[in-house]
Fold this sequence. Notes:
The protein is built from 8 helices and 5 strands; from the N terminus they run H-E-E-E-H-H-E-H-E-H-H-H-H. By secondary structure, it is an alpha/beta fold. Helix content is about 40%, strand content about 20%. The chain has a 5-stranded mixed beta sheet, with helices on both faces.
Amino acid sequence: MENRAYNTAISQRFRGYLPVVVDVETAGFNAQTDALLEIAAVIIDMDGDGNLLPAESVDCHVQPFEGANLDPKALAFNGIDPDHPFRDAKVEKAALDHVFAPIRAAVKASACKRAILVGHNAFFDLGFINAAVERTRHKHNPFHPFSTFDTVTLGGLAYGQTVLARAAIAAGLDWDADEAHSAIYDTMKTAELFCGIVNRWQSAFSEHPWMQVAGG
């Protein structure tokens, strides 16, 4: 695991929470019954000027849990073959360990108290993460259990767009439709969108209002 130095100033930006962008790919919409198939996360850092930027990333293929539902329509949409011999998928507990470890290290290195999930329709991603945590009885979930930042809302506010592809294009980001719907690609684009919107907001002020609040 990479030993990365994080800017501890980010701990003041969101009340001690470290933003971590997450995207999951699944075999349906029900977090309790449908399989979790991929998890990807991008940890957010801050530069010396107080601007956010994507930092370390981690991703993992996940084996469907025993008895999981696999909706053929969902698999056709995301193009995942759960039985592909080269998926190198991990069981849920190992997959969570793999993804959570660098996030927990980043929370500590940035002097934050916990991670907060950033997602496009964040309730969906957090729901599947929380369901997997519950199934595996995982004791080291770094994420706040219900608070999130949602780029659907932020994209609608900043650009009038709620679809990830359209919001990314409106923000001036490159978008490759052939790469979309893989967890790591969507996560990186969501991270770029989130950082861009927050940085755009901050650039509208001569001084960062969050620093004034944190300082007094």
